Amino acid sequence: MLSIDLRDKVCLVTGGNRGIGLQIGRTLAQAGATVVLTARTTDGLNQIADAAQAVTAPGSITGLPCDVTDAASVKSLFQSLHQTYGRLDAMVANAGILQDALVGMATEEQISQTLAVNTAGVLRCCQYASRLMARHKSGSIVLMSSVVGRTGNAGQSVYAGSKAAVIGIGKSLAQELGPQGIRVNVIAPGLIDTDMTRNLPPDKRQAFLDHVALGRSGTTQEVANLAVFLVSDLAGYVTGQVIGVDGGK
Ligand SMILES: NC(=O)c1ccc[n+]([C@@H]2O[C@H](COP(=O)([O-])OP(=O)(O)OC[C@H]3O[C@@H](n4cnc5c(N)ncnc54)[C@H](OP(=O)(O)O)[C@@H]3O)[C@@H](O)[C@H]2O)c1
Question: Is residue 248 assigned to a domain?
Answer without folding.
Answer: no
